Amino acid sequence: MSIQGASAGSATSAEAHAIGADAAADLAATLKAIADPLRLRMLSAIATSATGETTAGELATLTAVSQPTVSHHLKVLREVGLLTSDRRGTWVWYRIAPAYRGAVTTLLDRFAPVAVEVHGAHAAAAHGEVSGLADVDPALDRIAASLAERFTGTPQRECYRVVRESYTALARRGGNAAHLVPLTEHFARQRIIDAEKARAGTETHLPQVLFVCVANAGRSQLAAALLQHYAGDRVVVRSAGSAPASDVHAAVRSILDELGDPAAADAVDDVTRFYPKPLTDDAVRAADVVVTMGCGDACPVLPDKRYEDWAVGDPALASPAGVAAIRDELDQRVRDLLASLLPTDGTLTTEGTR
């Protein structure tokens, strides 16, 4: 084949795989409208508002620019179809256009946290950090044998399967390889407990709540820590992510450390106290209440489960004041949830127990 022929073939192949020129132009116009820090903050504020809408006056609190500048940014987002608006009295209310709701959720909950994490992880990548350990089999075998001895209702071969699946799933997230073995032991033990509970199907167990978000690195971790803080050993608390990150967001780590209680019923060491973990079917089956936060349809919907979806901002992308506001909102939601789970328990007041 001639060089000319090869070039023509390559061009044809590229054209077959690339999006169309008109679609690319439309997409570029929308991305250009979004590609501004203040507009991204506005989108996130609207998308995670409890009512799904807000006013220009509320959005103006995000910045020190003038009201006309805020209105200009909103106009740009409205002109590309991302926002709709209507006037009620003296206020104009803005909301995400219905056709764009899923796309904006994907942008904020999936793409944005990864972009932020990758942007800050170039130094670690340059040092070539590994995602797993070279000779881990003996350690995994010891964990599996220990779990099989402790949980006699689970066959030994099942313990081995769960341990190796857990290790693989946690290694896939990346992060510090030195922590993989203790994390695997904790995660596998939690999975076996949930599986045995789901099989037992008893109605006399403690209520169990599962918090799910995308990365299990912010919202779901905060909510789980708050519920554990208030409920103690009266409620079993779990959290998971549909696409778990390698570590908990730095913005919420200090809050989690404040809430973490090493004397709790399921006490663990500092490495395994808070870490992102994958969503499993057993965790859903064992839960009485499943609370989702931005993970869309990733969570299985099973009968006889109570599902709640909380529209809460992502602390990975929030300012320090935003993280504090998210924490306060989760605090109220968690206390309301606990009151519904333990309606006759008078130990939790409206002011909490902190």
Automatic annotation (TrEMBL):
<keyword id="KW-0059">Arsenical resistance</keyword>
<dbReference type="InterPro" id="IPR036196">
    <property type="entry name" value="Ptyr_pPase_sf"/>
</dbReference>
<dbReference type="InterPro" id="IPR036388">
    <property type="entry name" value="WH-like_DNA-bd_sf"/>
</dbReference>
<dbReference type="InterPro" id="IPR036390">
    <property type="entry name" value="WH_DNA-bd_sf"/>
</dbReference>
<dbReference type="InterPro" id="IPR023485">
    <property type="entry name" value="Ptyr_pPase"/>
</dbReference>
<feature type="domain" description="HTH arsR-type">
    <location>
        <begin position="19"/>
        <end position="119"/>
    </location>
</feature>
<dbReference type="InterPro" id="IPR001845">
    <property type="entry name" value="HTH_ArsR_DNA-bd_dom"/>
</dbReference>
<dbReference type="InterPro" id="IPR011991">
    <property type="entry name" value="ArsR-like_HTH"/>
</dbReference>
<protein>
    <submittedName>
        <fullName>ArsR family transcriptional regulator</fullName>
    </submittedName>
</protein>
<dbReference type="InterPro" id="IPR048716">
    <property type="entry name" value="Phosphatase-like_N"/>
</dbReference>
<dbReference type="Pfam" id="PF21234">
    <property type="entry name" value="Phosphatase-like_N"/>
</dbReference>
<dbReference type="Pfam" id="PF01022">
    <property type="entry name" value="HTH_5"/>
</dbReference>
<dbReference type="Pfam" id="PF01451">
    <property type="entry name" value="LMWPc"/>
</dbReference>
